[in-house]
């Protein structure tokens, strides 16, 4: 090896070492910053930042409600026939094989 390749190798080695130590320093800084945060006292404190509402819901307030009702047999038969129709349509379609030519 000549002096130029050794110099290039050392430059890249020093750059990689510097980047590694910079990354380690940044990760330790962010980890220690997480330890300095105020601990959560309740579930509401933790979830307050993630609520999608513009105003904060009150404790015990219903945020979202879903009502399920049963359907009669005619509706069920229509839904099942539609599911079967879509399943057959998907099974009849090409499975997306790729042709490889040499």
For this entry, give a set of tags.
single chain, 102 residues, flat
Mind telling me the C-alpha Rg?
30 Å
Q: N- to C-terminal separation?
A: 41 Å
Sketch the topology as an H/E string, one letter per element.
HHH
Low-confidence stretches: none
Residue share in helix: 55-70%
Structural class: mainly alpha
The overall strand count is 0
The general outline is flat
Structural domain count: 1
Content of β-strand:
under 5%
Largest sheet: none
The number of helical runs is 3
- The average pLDDT score comes to 81
Commentary on this structure:
This protein has 102 residues and is mainly α. The protein has one domain. It has three helices and no strands. It is flat and about 85 Å long.
Give a quick precis of the structure.
This protein is mainly alpha-helical and 102 residues long. Helices cover 58% and strands 0% of the residues.
List the helices and strands and how they pair.
Elements: H1 3-36, H2 43-47, H3 73-92
């Amino acid at each position: 090896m000549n002096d130029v390749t050794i110099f290039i190798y050392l430059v890249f080695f020093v750059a990689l070492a510097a980047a590694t130590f910079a990354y380690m320093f940044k990760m330790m800084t962010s980890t220690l910053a997480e330890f300095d945060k105020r601990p959560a006292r309740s579930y509401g404190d933790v979830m307050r930042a993630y609520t999608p509402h513009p105003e904060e819901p009150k404790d015990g307030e219903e945020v979202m409600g879903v009502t399920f009702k049963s359907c009669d047999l005619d509706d069920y038969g229509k839904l099942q026939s539609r599911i079967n129709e879509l399943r057959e349509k998907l099974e009849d379609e090409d499975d997306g094989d790729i042709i490889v030519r040499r």
